[in-house]
């Protein structure tokens, strides 16, 4: 478990090598196709019943008031954290006590947010490590050059140092980051190393016994996404070249990924279903797989009805609107916008006073604008306006066709007390919408989404508000940034010294 020895790798080549392969036999083709198609189905069916200690939030009695009830269904759990197959977010970590040790932590991230709205992976890294730095840990970030020149030195806080590689902006080259890491590690050894997905290539990762990698999406989940996107293709539309390319290339990528994932010492799954997939399909020993759900700033995302009303007024939603739906994020195909565009078009004829607010940019922005005055297309919103957006809508829609990862937008909406309607994928069903009271789920097709939208409209604002209050209770308990960061802190401590792996005792 201790800190791994960092040896020179000057003879290592970062260029990928193409493997010469014989033409596959028909049997091999059929076998690979069966592997890729059946594994997602088996995992999908498996995860719905595999989460061990997760009773219904409602039946557990959490909702005695609108405030967070201090109840922990895992309060009696004790043992080695490496044996826990449930999300560490369920456990209690004392934020009022300082860390038992100050850690030196290295972070590898392809990008680091500077002067622009970050993507989900970058937001996760920034939120997590800013919190750890505020806890006093010495955090060093190794990342690509920023898109704009920074006005300060490489310091973003008194305890966080950002090391930018010497390359074009946002162009990640790990071969340039590695010497920077080696030099800093030589000055004083890192206690723990954290990679956001494959920012640190597996050939380098094999050198580090103190490395943990957070997976924001793996090849098997990405292939599932390709399948769902093609199934959403309108009748008569030709199969996209991208899908054909994926179907031809992804099977071997999945197999290779299963092989090289063992090079990483510790794996952090950001959803319960991803944890199951890493253990059951990728065959990672369960003591090396830790489930820690993403967290969002629960001080920033809070219920504020007055702010919501002002927001609706400012964007032109009339006061007599019976219901306001909302969607946010990149307006691209894999986020499910072909489904939502068709579904909303179908319900508008029966519900003249229902509005849709679209926050985001991308190819589908113009298509939404063509739906008429009951669609308000805002473009990309700065982070400072997201709270107003979530408070200004009655239900947050997430029609994603991507089973991988775990969208922060769902957590942000729930923190603001807004119920959700989301695609019924294992990651969402098993980690976010764990109770029917939190909203609605639908299969990734237009008919299923239309059915849910009709239910939402029929329920009305008052019923949705009740759901939203319950969302807030659960989200504040499970998706707070502090809870996520304290769980990572404990994992890094455990990596440094096994005595910290015992829960709840800290020696």
UniProtKB/TrEMBL annotation:
Pfam family, any one: Glycos_transf_1
Organism of this sequence: Zostera marina (Eelgrass)
Listed GO MF terms: glycosyltransferase activity
Keywords annotated in UniProt: Glycosyltransferase, Membrane, Transferase, Transmembrane, Transmembrane helix
PANTHER family (alphabetical): GLYCOSYLTRANSFERASE
Glycosyltransferase subfamily 4-like N-terminal domain location: 118-299
Listed transmembrane segments: 25-47
Domain Glycosyl transferase family intervals: 323-470
Top-rank taxon: Eukaryota
Protein name, UniProt field: Glycosyltransferase, family GT4
């Amino acid at each position: 478990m201790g800190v791994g020895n960092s040896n020179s790798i000057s003879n290592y080549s970062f260029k990928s090598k193409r493997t010469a392969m014989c033409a596959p036999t028909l049997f091999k083709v059929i076998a690979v196709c069966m592997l890729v198609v059946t594994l997602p189905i088996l995992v999908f069916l498996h995860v719905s019943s595999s989460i061990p200690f997760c009773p219904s939030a409602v039946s557990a009695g959490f909702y005695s008031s609108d405030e967070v009830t201090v109840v922990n269904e895992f309060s009696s759990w004790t043992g080695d954290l490496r044996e826990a197959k449930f999300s560490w977010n369920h456990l209690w970590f004392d934020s009022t006590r300082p860390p038992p040790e100050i850690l030196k932590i290295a972070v590898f991230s392809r990008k680091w947010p500077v002067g622009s709205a970050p993507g989900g992976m970058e937001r996760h890294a920034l939120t997590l490590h800013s919190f750890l730095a505020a806890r006093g840990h010495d955090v060093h970030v190794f990342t690509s050059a920023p898109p704009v020149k920074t006005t300060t030195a490489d310091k973003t806080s008194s305890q966080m140092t950002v090391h930018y590689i010497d390359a074009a902006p946002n162009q990640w080259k790990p071969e340039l980051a590695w010497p920077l890491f080696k030099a800093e590690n030589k000055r004083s050894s890192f206690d723990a190393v954290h990679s956001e997905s494959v920012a640190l290539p597996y050939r380098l990762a094999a050198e580090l016994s103190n490395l943990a990698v957070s997976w924001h999406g793996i090849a098997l989940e990405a292939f599932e996404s390709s399948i769902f996107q093609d199934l959403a293709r309108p009748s008569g539309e030709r199969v996209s070249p991208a899908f054909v390319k994926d179907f031809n290339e992804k099977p071997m990528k999945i197999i290779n990924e299963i092989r090289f994932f063992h090079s990483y010492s510790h794996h952090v799954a950001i959803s319960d279903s991803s944890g199951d997939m890493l253990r059951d399909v990728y065959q990672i020993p369960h003591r090396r797989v830790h489930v820690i759900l993403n967290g969002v700033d629960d001080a920033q995302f809070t219920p504020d009805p007055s702010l919501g009303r002002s927001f609706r007024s400012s964007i032109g939603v009339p006061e007599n609107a019976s219901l306001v739906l909302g969607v946010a994020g990149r307006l691209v195909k894999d986020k499910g916008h072909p489904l939502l565009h068709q579904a909303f078009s179908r319900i508008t004829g029966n519900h003249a006073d229902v509005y849709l607010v679209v926050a985001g940019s991308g190819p589908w922005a113009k298509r939404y604008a063509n739906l008429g005055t009951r669609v308000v297309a805002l473009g990309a919103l700065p982070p400072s306006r997201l709270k107003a957006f979530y408070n200004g809508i009655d239900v947050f829609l997430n029609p994603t066709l991507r089973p991988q990862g775990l969208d922060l937008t769902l957590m942000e909406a729930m923190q603001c007390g807004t119920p959700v309607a989301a695609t019924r994928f294992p990651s969402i069903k098993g980690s976010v919408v764990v109770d029917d009271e939190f909203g609605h789920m639908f299969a990734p097709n237009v008919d299923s989404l239309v059915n849910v939208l009709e239910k939402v409209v029929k329920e009305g604002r008052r019923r949705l508000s009740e759901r939203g209050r319950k969302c807030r209770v659960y989200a504040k308990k499970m998706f707070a940034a502090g809870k996520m960061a304290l769980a990572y802190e404990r994992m890094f401590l455990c990596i440094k010294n096994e005595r910290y792996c015992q829960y709840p005792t800290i020696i």
